[in-house]
């Protein structure tokens, strides 16, 4: 959610039950402003909160002019001091895929994972058990990246693409209408499109190239991994991800308010196919 | 159209001499033409915005009228003379300050001078085109026009035209077939002298207007009309700094065109459900009865079963948990409505369970004494009705069996004995639960939970859809629909996560020993009047300061153990066969769980992780904080305590946390077939050879028998003969 409308957004996203306490809210308002100034971001988003056993991580993201450029992620333990996280790499993802369980809450905590590695020593090849240390910070980076790529969404029309390339916030976005808001096809993944080029020509003909340049949620696998609900007596549409439980997206139809927040344990719900 | 027709001004003296001198002047300057001359002139002459504006105004009005006539007149021939005549009038009528050698004014003069040359030329041209039947006037003009369009608007925007090379030939003349010679030379062409300048301008204007009037493919709005609307709107409203809001004005104007304000009498169809919901919720806020006397106030101020939801919400908000405050207030009014409808003794907001299409708000209530039996009786009748139907079926089946000569062997499998559910107000059914989807909707009562439902609920993991009568499709099959599954999950969550500070509750007067048969400890508690609260820091530090005040559910599915083998009176009548079968099942051990009011420190760990996490709500002001406990086993279960107050709440999806993946149980092994007994003997079918051998053997014996008979007959005959 945008740091500028933090209070309203938190209020609208509170239907999932998790929010922020007043002291955190107050400190966020101040510290995010300073982050924007110091790092010279165009927009700062409050991404959410990952619950750890000992402490919680508060995550924020900074965007530059081009909205689809890779975002910079920052984390904080007390909502006042923010530290920049390194960008995610493939290696990190592979390394942290073996770590399971909850986050500890201590960024320097190291997970130990034993694995068999083949070691060449003087012509002999034998396997040895090696204990690999994985830092929690690395795990944090890769989980945030996975969640972003999988379930960060925005409504259709909120961003538009100019012929020169960069993607801007659409200042004339007036919100989705009520009938559009209930369809999954009106929401896009907030990332570089992956499936767009696989569309048939017929489908592409109907697209508006300035607005439809990202993947929509319609073809997400598994089907049914999004729950759409109307809350507050039809005045608010809330999408909750079932694949990463804790991600809530809200939008008040016919207004400009929208945003998403993740408050959860940072674990993927692999049992989803059994639960539907 | 927005523009009013220009007022005819009294023609001032045509300063013909001046104009002609200007014409020659211009001709001398450069070979002229209409449009690009404008910017040049604008450069030369000190820019006077009023002049420019008046220019534009005139151009626009001319264009207006011309286009008007253009649209109106069917044929070309009439067209040209007509607007040329009008031009003459206009030319005479409107001219700005004599400063600007406005070409269009010169038109009539030049035109008159040149005679009908250009007119006939143009007319001939167009007639040709028509005869060819190719394009209509507009398209022709438009094609000539396309490149020059920026020229027309050039005076409206800041961009300078870069290429002056075309300025010689006029933007519109380039494509005209008759004037195609030497378009590239910057020198003048003989025709430009003869072609009157205002003609191209006029054409240009007409082209421009025609192009602007073109309607878009997807709608019937043309750019011209849209610009007219936009400018009218701006002129009417006169906003400050219109340039900066131009884009949004543009969008708004477009939107308004396509979404005209509906009839004030008819409602917007899309918003219908929203308004309905709002109406329903409005009813919540009205006081029941309507009377506002003091008596009602006093009654209400007295003890009411409705819980102080707002206070709980406030404390939980400090912990970062809970719904927003207006939602909490609506829940409060909904609970108040529930209390008014049902005979409720105590009521509590249990929490919210999220579902796929809708969510559930759950209220935990207990009825007043004696009130609850109606619901129970109805439920029991339904169950008995079911059993009654089953019994006659069995009897009929038995009768049929006796009639058949082949008695179908009875299956050896016996369903495990049904464990009776717990009585109301005890164990898992201690409280009644009401659910609703949204405040304002009616509350529905959930049925009591049976042990088998809890046992099965432990084996499956399904999302709730939000509809109480939805079936729960799973393996192992869940006995019931979503309402039962919901109730079972609520029971499990309550048993696992309802906690209170140590000392808040205490056991009642001691009654008997704890070692009574079948008793797993006391199952009732009461509030401790002497409770003085535990300091928040201590609550956060140690888990021993919190205790469970809900009974643990045994693996059997109940809180108090029941031996499933105990026969009731009905079962004894069924004969002795079952007793023998039961012998195999004897020796079921009594299941024991942790007693009531055990501290949390005794809870089992999940994979080296404590099942509870404690926090202070605010680290910056510990003296005023609230102690918050979060369950790691049931994500979404929270409890807070501060001073003498505490509360539990659950907001989540309703599932347990498990570090391993969910593995559904495998299907049961295939049942054994009937064992071989003398009644049932399996044999393989005889093969073809065997059958043939048998047949041959039979024939042989038959033949042998016949021979013997014949022999005997012969013998008899012989005997007779003898």
Automatic annotation (TrEMBL), chain A:
Record keyword Cell cycle present: no
Localisation per UniProt entry: Cell projection, Kinocilium; Cytoplasm, Cytoskeleton, Flagellum axoneme
GO biological process: axoneme assembly; cilium movement involved in cell motility; motile cilium assembly
UniProt keyword Cytoplasm present: yes
Entry GO terms, CC: axoneme; kinocilium
Domain of life: Eukaryota
Family: Belongs to the flagellar radial spoke RSP9 family.
Protein name: Radial spoke head protein 9 homolog
From TrEMBL, chain B:
Low complexity: bias regions: 15-26, 694-704
GO cellular component, one term: radial spoke
Biased composition (Acidic residues): 370-384, 390-404, 509-518, 569-589, 705-722
Stretches with biased composition (Pro residues): 1-14
InterPro entries: Radial_spoke
Main location: cytoplasm
Pfam family membership, one: Radial_spoke
Localization of this protein: Cytoplasm, Cytoskeleton, Cilium axoneme
Residue ranges of the region described as Disordered: 1-45, 369-424, 509-528, 567-594, 684-722
Keywords per UniProt: Cell projection, Cilium, Cytoplasm, Cytoskeleton
Listed CDD domains: DD_CrRSP4-like (cd22963)
Protein name per UniProt: Radial spoke head 6 homolog a
Organism annotation: Lynx pardinus
GO terms of biological process kind: axoneme assembly; cilium movement involved in cell motility
């Amino acid at each position: 959610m945008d740091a500028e409308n933090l209070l309203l957004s938190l209020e609208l996203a509170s239907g999932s039950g998790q929010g922020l306490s007043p002291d955190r809210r107050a400190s966020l308002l101040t510290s995010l402003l300073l982050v924007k100034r110091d790092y010279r971001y165009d927009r700062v988003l409050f991404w959410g909160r990952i619950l750890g056993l000992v402490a919680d991580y508060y995550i924020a993201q900074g965007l530059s002019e081009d909205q689809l450029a890779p975002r910079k992620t920052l984390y904080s333990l007390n909502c006042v001091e923010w530290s920049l996280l390194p960008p995610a790499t493939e290696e990190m993802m592979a390394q942290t895929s073996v770590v399971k369980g909850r986050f500890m809450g201590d960024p320097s905590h190291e997970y130990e994972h034993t694995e068999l590695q083949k070691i060449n020593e003087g012509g002999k090849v034998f396997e040895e058990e090696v204990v690999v240390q994985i830092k929690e910070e690395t795990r944090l980076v890769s989980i945030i990246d996975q969640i972003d790529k999988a379930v960060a969404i925005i409504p259709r029309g909120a961003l538009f693409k100019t012929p020169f390339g960069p993607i801007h916030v659409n200042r004339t976005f007036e919100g989705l209408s009520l009938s559009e808001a209930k369809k999954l096809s009106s929401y896009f993944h907030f990332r570089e499109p992956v499936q767009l080029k696989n569309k048939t020509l017929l489908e592409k003909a109907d697209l508006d190239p300035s607005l439809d340049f990202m993947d929509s949620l319609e073809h997400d696998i598994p089907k049914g991994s999004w729950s759409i609900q109307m809350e507050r007596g039809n005045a608010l549409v809330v999408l909750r991800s079932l694949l990463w439980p804790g991600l809530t997206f809200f939008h008040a139809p016919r207004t400009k308010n929208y945003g998403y927040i993740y408050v959860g344990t940072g674990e993927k719900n692999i049992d989803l196919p059994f639960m539907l | 159209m927005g523009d009013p027709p220009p007022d005819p001004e009294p023609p001032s003296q045509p300063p013909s001499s001046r104009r002609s001198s200007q014409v020659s002047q211009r001709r001398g300057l450069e070979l002229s033409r209409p449009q690009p001359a404008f910017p040049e002139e604008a450069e030369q002459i000190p820019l006077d915005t009023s002049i420019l504006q008046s220019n534009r105004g005139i151009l626009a009005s001319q264009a207006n009228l011309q286009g008007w006539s253009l649209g109106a007149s069917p044929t070309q021939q009439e067209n040209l003379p007509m607007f040329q005549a009008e031009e003459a009038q206009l030319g005479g009528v409107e001219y700005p300050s004599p400063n600007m050698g406005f070409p269009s004014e010169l038109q009539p003069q030049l035109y008159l001078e040149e005679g009908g040359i250009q007119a006939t030329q143009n007319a001939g041209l167009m007639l040709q085109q028509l005869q060819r039947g190719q394009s209509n006037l507009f398209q022709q003009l438009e094609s000539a026009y396309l490149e020059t369009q920026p020229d027309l608007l050039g005076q409206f925007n800041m961009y300078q035209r870069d290429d002056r090379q075309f300025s010689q030939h006029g933007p519109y003349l380039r494509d005209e077939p008759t004037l195609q010679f030497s378009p590239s030379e910057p020198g003048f062409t003989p025709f430009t002298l003869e072609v009157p300048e205002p003609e191209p301008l006029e054409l240009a204007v007409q082209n421009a207007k025609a192009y602007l009037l073109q309607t878009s493919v997807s709608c019937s709005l043309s750019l011209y009309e849209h610009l007219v609307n936009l400018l009218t709107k701006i002129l009417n409203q006169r906003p400050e700094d219109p340039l900066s809001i131009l884009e949004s004005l543009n969008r708004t104007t477009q939107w308004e065109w396509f979404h005209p304000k509906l009839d004030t009498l008819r409602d917007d169809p899309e918003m219908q459900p929203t308004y309905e919901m709002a109406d329903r919720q409005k009813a919540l806020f009205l006081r029941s009865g309507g009377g506002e006397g003091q008596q009602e106030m006093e009654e209400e101020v007295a003890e009411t079963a409705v819980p102080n939801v707002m206070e709980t919400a406030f404390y939980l908000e400090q912990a970062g948990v809970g719904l927003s405050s207006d939602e909490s207030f609506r829940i409060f009014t909904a609970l108040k409505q529930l209390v008014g409808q049902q005979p409720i003794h105590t009521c509590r907001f249990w929490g919210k369970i999220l579902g796929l299409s809708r969510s559930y708000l759950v209220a935990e209530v207990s009825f007043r004494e004696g009130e609850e039996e109606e619901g129970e009786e109805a439920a029991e009748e339904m169950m008995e009705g079911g059993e009654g139907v089953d019994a006659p079926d069995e009897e009929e089946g038995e009768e049929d069996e006796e009639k058949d000569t082949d008695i179908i062997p009875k299956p050896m499998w016996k369903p495990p004995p049904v464990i009776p559910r717990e009585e109301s107000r005890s164990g898992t059914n201690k409280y009644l639960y009401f659910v609703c989807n949204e405040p304002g909707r009616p509350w529905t009562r959930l049925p009591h939970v049976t042990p088998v439902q809890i046992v099965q609920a432990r084996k499956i993991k399904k999302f709730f859809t939000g509809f109480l009568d939805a079936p729960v499709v799973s393996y192992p099959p869940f006995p019931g629909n979503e309402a039962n599954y919901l109730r079972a999950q609520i029971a499990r969550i309550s048993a696992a996560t309802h906690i209170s500070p140590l000392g808040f509750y205490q056991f009642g007067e001691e009654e008997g020993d704890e070692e009574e048969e079948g008793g797993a400890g006391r199952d009732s508690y009461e509030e401790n009047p002497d409770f003085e609260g535990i300091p928040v820091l201590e609550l956060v530090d140690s888990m021993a300061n919190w205790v469970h005040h809900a009974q643990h559910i045994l693996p059997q599915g109940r809180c108090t153990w029941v031996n499933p083998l105990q026969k009731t009176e009905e079962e004894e009548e069924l004969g002795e066969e079952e007793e023998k079968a039961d012998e195999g099942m004897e020796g079921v051990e009594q299941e024991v769980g942790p007693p009531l009011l055990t501290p949390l420190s005794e809870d089992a760990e999940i994979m080296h992780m404590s099942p509870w996490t404690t926090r202070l709500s605010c680290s910056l002001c510990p003296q005023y904080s609230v102690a918050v406990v979060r369950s790691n086993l049931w994500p979404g279960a929270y409890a807070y305590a501060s001073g003498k107050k505490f509360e539990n709440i659950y907001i989540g999806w309703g599932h347990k946390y498990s570090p391993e993946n969910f593995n559904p149980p495998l299907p049961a092994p295939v049942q054994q077939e009937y064992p071989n007994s003398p009644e049932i003997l399996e044999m393989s079918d005889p093969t073809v050879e065997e059958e043939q051998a048998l047949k041959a053997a039979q024939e042989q014996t038959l033949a042998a028998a016949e021979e013997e008979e014949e022999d005997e007959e012969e013998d008899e005959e012989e005997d007779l003969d003898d």
